[in-house]
C-alpha cells in the first residue's frame, strides 16, 4: 500500500484526535501518503478527502472532539452511497483506510470490505466502552472522569441540603459508564439496562443508609428501562419526606481534554492500525487487552458481545451501607 485515509465516524469521543495524529504520523513514518476524510462516511460519499502531513496534526493530542468532524451517514447505508465512496477513494488512489468509531462504523466497514475488497482497520472510538476485543475504548476513561467530577460537585450540594440525587449518565444500551462512575463516587445504587432493577431492595437500601449518611446518590444509565425521571418519581412516592432531585448530565460527558489513559491508548492503537495495514491485515479492530495489542474481527467486536461484570454491581451493594 502507498496511500491511506483516516476518518472518524458515529458519536465523537475524547481521544479521537490523538488517534488521528497517531495514524497520520505512523503513516508518514512508514513512507505512506495519508489523507483525511471529513465528516465520517458522509465525507467519503461526498468526496471530502484531503492530504494530511505531520504538521496538520500538531497540537491536537490534548483536544477533545475530532478535528476531522464526525457524522452519522444515511448515504453510506445504501449500496449506491458505498459505491460512490469507493470511487472517491480510488480517484485519489487510496489503497487502505483506518476508521475510528463504534459498532455502527465497523458494521459499515465490514460491508464495504466484502463489497469492494478494500482493506480497513478500525480503532475503537466511543465513550460507551461497548465493544468486545478491547478492555477499554478511546474516550471511555475521559467520559467517566468527567462524570465523577460532576457527581462529586453534586455530592457537595446534596450533603449540605440532606438531599437524594438521581443522576442520569450516558449509555443508551449499556451501563458501563454508570457502573464505574457509581463505584468511584460512592453511589448508593446504580441502575443499568443489563439487569432487572429490584426497586424493593433499592428502597430498603436507601432507608437503611439514611442513618450513616445525609446525602444519597443513585446513578441511572440513560438506557435503563425507566430512566432518571421515573426513578426519581418512584423514590419520591416511596419516601414523601425525602428531598429528591434529578440531574441529567447530558453532553458534557462527550467533551473535554482526553485523559492520559485515552491519549496513550489512542496513540498505541493508531500506530498498531497502520502497522497492521502495512502487514496486510484487514477487517479487524485494534484493541488493547491486558496492555497487549490484539486484533478482533469487526463482526466479533460489535457490542452485543460485551457483558457487564456483575461483580461491579455486587460491590456497590456491599459498599453502600
Ligand atoms: P457510537 O457508538 O459512538 O454511536 P457508532 O460507530 O456505533 O458510534 P453509528 O451512528 O451507529 O455510530 O454508525 C456510524 C455510521 O456507520 C452510520 O452513520 C452509518 O453511516 C454507518 N453504518 C452503521 N450501520 C451500518 C450498516 N448496517 N450498513 C452500512 N453502514 C452502516
UniProtKB/TrEMBL annotation:
Its cofactor is Mg(2+). Substrate binds at residues 126-128, 163, 170-172, 222, 245, 251-254. Keywords: Allosteric enzyme, ATP-binding, Cytoplasm, Glycolysis, Kinase, Magnesium, Metal-binding, Nucleotide-binding, Transferase. ATP binds at residues 11, 72-73, 102-105. InterPro entries: ATP_PFK (IPR022953), ATP_PFK_prok-type (IPR012003), PFKA_ATP_prok (IPR012828), Phosphofructokinase_CS (IPR015912), Phosphofructokinase_dom (IPR000023), PKF_sf (IPR035966). It catalyses: beta-D-fructose 6-phosphate + ATP = beta-D-fructose 1,6-bisphosphate + ADP + H(+). The active site is at 128 (proton acceptor). It is an enzyme of class 2 (transferase). Residues 3-277 form the Phosphofructokinase domain. The keyword Membrane does not apply. Pathway: Carbohydrate degradation; glycolysis; D-glyceraldehyde 3-phosphate and glycerone phosphate from D-glucose: step 3/4. The keyword Chaperone does not apply. ADP binds at residues 21-25, 155, 186-188, 213-215. Homotetramer. Belongs to the phosphofructokinase type A (PFKA) family. ATP-dependent PFK group I subfamily. Prokaryotic clade 'B1' sub-subfamily. Catalyzes the phosphorylation of D-fructose 6-phosphate to fructose 1,6-bisphosphate by ATP, the first committing step of glycolysis. This is ATP-dependent 6-phosphofructokinase.
